[in-house]
Amino acid sequence: MSTILVTGAAGFIGFHVAMRLSARGERVLGVDDFNDYYEQELKIARAGRLSRDAHVDIRRVDVANPSAIRDLMAVEDVDRVIHLAAQAGVRYSLDHPFAYERSNMAGHLSVLEACRHTPKLNHLVYASSSSVYGDRPSSGQAFKETDPVDHPISLYAASKRAGELMSDTYSHLFNIPQTGLRFFTVYGPWGRPDMAYFSFTRKALRGEPVAIFGEGRLQRDFTYIDDIVDGIVGVLDRPPLNGGHRILNIGNNQPRSLSDFVSIIEAACGRPLKKSILQMQPGDVSCTWADVSAINGLTGYTPKTSLEVGISEFVSWFRSRYTDDGEVRAN
Ligand SMILES: NC(=O)c1ccc[n+]([C@@H]2O[C@H](COP(=O)([O-])OP(=O)(O)OC[C@H]3O[C@@H](n4cnc5c(N)ncnc54)[C@H](O)[C@@H]3O)[C@@H](O)[C@H]2O)c1
User: Fold this and answer.
1) For burial by CB atoms within 10 Å, which of 257, 286, 310, 315 has the most?
2) Which of the four CATH numbers 3.40.50.720, 1.10.3880.10, 3.40.640.10, 2.70.98.60 does domain 3-185+224-251+290-301 have?
3) Are 109 and 67 in contact (CB under 8 A)?
4) What is the DSSP string of 168-193?
5) What local confidence, expressed as pLDDT, does residue 297 receive?
6) pLDDT at site 137
7) Ligand 1 — pocket residues by CB below 6 A?
8) What is the CB neighbour count within 10 angstroms for residue 302?
9) In whole angstroms, how large is the CA radius of gyration of the chain?
10) Shortest CA distance to 87 belongs to which of 146, 150, 129?
């Protein structure tokens, strides 16, 4: 049976995508290295749900190991790949640069090589990031795929741009049908503990102070996970013709300020946050804002979830998994 390989399947987005594809009757094979960048327990819990509730076969594999990925794809009859495994995070890249070299650059190349040697490959969809646009404080315009991306301001962003360039070369040389998706701040249930919505919720419930960087004026195009999954699956089903490569934004087209975001978290938690206001951090960009007309034209993608609804869904999930002290609930 033809199989979809999802890399990073124990991660936040990979978990939701694998769940959705399995629910529509696809055979899904997940891989992840279960590293300890954030709490491994959460990755293990997502993987447990995937294998128990969705019968997704999930294996511990490092995508940066080329022979492991290539052998797996050959043996398991893989014809579509959703490559999400990566070292995420802008701030972490200041102190752990080689994690990005390994997972994002060597890992991306290893997936491309495996696809090159899979003649029946129908489509490789891979994760890029809005961070490739760099810092554009005063543009007042949504980011378009045709905008310049020559000045990434973090190694994370540079590693994602490197992935896009490698993909372009591989499509040119070997006719691999590919779509790169530039994600814009994805959030929701089963999300990432290193992201602000997660840590702010944890701190609001514990009554601990939070650091608000950029004096609350930073803006992000927060995108709810269910909308993102709609977009990924819609794109997967529409491979580019003739082994081409395209890059699409996938965001919400509605940037919100960090101050708004904090008020929404306070309302959803029913607790005020103790805030300390700080300067922007190196590598942070002032604003992200996706023009989504290209993905909308291709798939009809239209994000539907407001930040108020999405954060409230997240906080409900958070409280079902953790106590207000932040401990994982026994179940
Ligand atoms: N969540 C966002 O807001 C966002 C924004 C822009 C881009 N992205 C990109 O989307 C993708 C998924 O992000 P996410 O939010 O689900 O992050 P995540 O960290 O939850 O998921 C990534 C998964 O990849 C795994 N992984 C890392 N290195 C690996 C390796 N060498 N081999 C195998 N597995 C490895 C991790 O263990 C993790 O489970 C990433 O490529 C990320 O860069 C996410």
Assistant:
1) 310
2) 3.40.50.720
3) no
4) HHHHHHH---EEEEEE--EE-TT--T
5) 98
6) 63
7) 8, 10-14, 31-35, 43, 62-64, 84-88, 103, 107, 127, 129, 183, 185-186, 192
8) 12
9) 19
10) 129
Q: Where are the alpha helices (DSSP H) in the chain?
A: 12-23, 40-54, 66-75, 92-95, 97-100, 107-116, 155-174, 196-206, 225-236, 258-269, 293-299, 307-321
pLDDT of residue 175: 96
CB atoms inside a 10 Å sphere around CB 120: 9
Q: Which residues of the chain are under the pLDDT cut of 50?
A: none
Cα 198 from chain centre = 15
Residues 6+ apart with CB under 8 A from 181: 125, 126, 127, 128, 231, 232, 235, 247, 248, 249, 250
Query: Residue 135 corresponds to which tokens in the numbers above?
Result: 């810092």
Active site residues: 156
Nearest CA to ligand 1 atom 11: 84
Whole-number Å distance, alpha carbon 272 to ligand 1 midpoint, is: 31
Q: What is the DSSP letter of 42?
A: H
**pLDDT for the residue 280:** 83
Give the residue whose CA is nearest to atom 7 of ligand 1: 129
Q: 121: CA distance to ligand 1 center in Å?
A: 22
How far is residue 67's CA from residue 240's CA, in Å, rounded to a whole number? 27
For the chain, the domains span 3-185+224-251+290-301
What's the gap between Cα 184 and its chain centre? Answer: 8
**pLDDT for the residue numbered 135:** 86
